[in-house]
Design goal:
Elements (H helix, E strand, L loop, with lengths): L1 H9 L9 H12 L6 H12 L7 H10 L1 H10 L32 H8 L3 H8 L4 H4 L8 E7 L5 E7 L1 H13 L19 H5 L7 E6 L9 H10 L4 H11 L16 H12 L10 H8 L1 H12 L4 E5 L2 E6 L1 H20 L10 E4 L5 E2 L2 E2 L5 E2 L1 H17 L12 H15 L1 H11 L7
Antiparallel strand pairs: 1-2, 3-5, 3-6, 4-5, 7-8, 8-9
Helix pairs in contact: 1-4, 2-3, 7-12, 11-12, 18-19
Length: 441
Amino acid sequence: MLGALADCLLAGEPIAESTAELLAARCRHMLGKSWRWLTPLSRRYLNRFSGGIRPRHRDVVQFLRTDRGFRRARSKYFNEFSIQDWLTEPPQMQPVAAAATWDIPSILSTGDLAAWLGLDIGELRWFADLKGLAYKRAGQQLRHYHYRILTKRFGSIRLIEAPKPRLKELQRQILRWILEKIPPHPAVHGFVTGRSIETFVGPHIGRRVVLRMDLKDFFPTFGGVRIQAFFRTLGYPEPVAGLLGGICTNAAPRDVWNEIADHDAVRVGEVRRLYARPHLPQGAPTSPALANLCLYRLDCRLTGLAKSVSAAYTRYADDLAFSGGEEFEKCVERFSLYVAAILREEGFTVHHRKTRIMRQGVQQHLAGLVTNQRVNVVRSDFDRLKATLTNSIRFGPESQNREGRPRFRQHLEGRVAFVERVNPKKGKRLRAILERIQWAG
């Protein structure tokens, strides 16, 4: 009874377009009787779920179980309840209002999703892994990711989760035909076509004061439930949204952490629990786009907060930047507390050791670029890169690959290219040193 009534409430028009009378009429048709309590129940249902995404079936069932009016009606008329006409309406896309015009594919069932991805149903469920088999069982054959642990200063631990080729193809298809069709917030500059680090720092050049903040454990903070909810906002039925979310998230197996040693046990335990639940994997092509889109409300709130003190706001992945003039300088310390409070409400934690308030009297830098008067590379970063290149000539490049990067040559070439783009004169000097390195093979 509960499941059938939940199906009835979920069917038809999106919640934003439904009315209590329409829902009650549909329920009366299904139950075969004009119960007086159906309209008040429908009204309470709309009050509970309107203004958000389409609820999950189990959320509606839980609502019915805890609704006092329905519980009274159920206890009073239990013997009279019967299903007269099961709903046979086909599933349909039910996007939120903002998503109604987005040019994304209509996928109405798990069969449609399997066909769209070029899989059969069994393969689709295996790649989505909603039961967490890859997390529970050992063995590389059951796993869809390769893992690499990075440890940095201040006890920072990061897990790189690189999808295997077949899963990466599926994620790229979702990225190209769904995620890239959705416009990101104007303040977002990371992993967005036509935007870059330069556009990220551009609004903050030559400002009186610059505030830099960093989000802790960025990608693993996005849980699987949140990603599935995002796909439901696009209008996909719950089973389809669940499988799309499963393909784009991952839970790291327990034995991945066996390799880490000589590290703070408390921090390792925290990170292990964080990565144990389904989350956005750093290394999947879909993760940056999903993170940007899921943070749309946060970006709106921070943009509004910045405008209230005549400041500018931009974000590059987990790096947040604010800047302004005299008005902003007067309240920047208090402003940073408001930002931290908003981030906490949205489920994030500020990496306080990386928070910087930089006035004109000091070097203002964001994402490795100096922003005081014009964009330039940070002097200390330039000196370290130059030393790495020089030592690679003297002692061989293998001696400088302390982090064990599998493509160290490409890594150095990318860093030199970055300097060339920002400061061609300095980049030319580094390029000349790079070309003198003798590479094995």
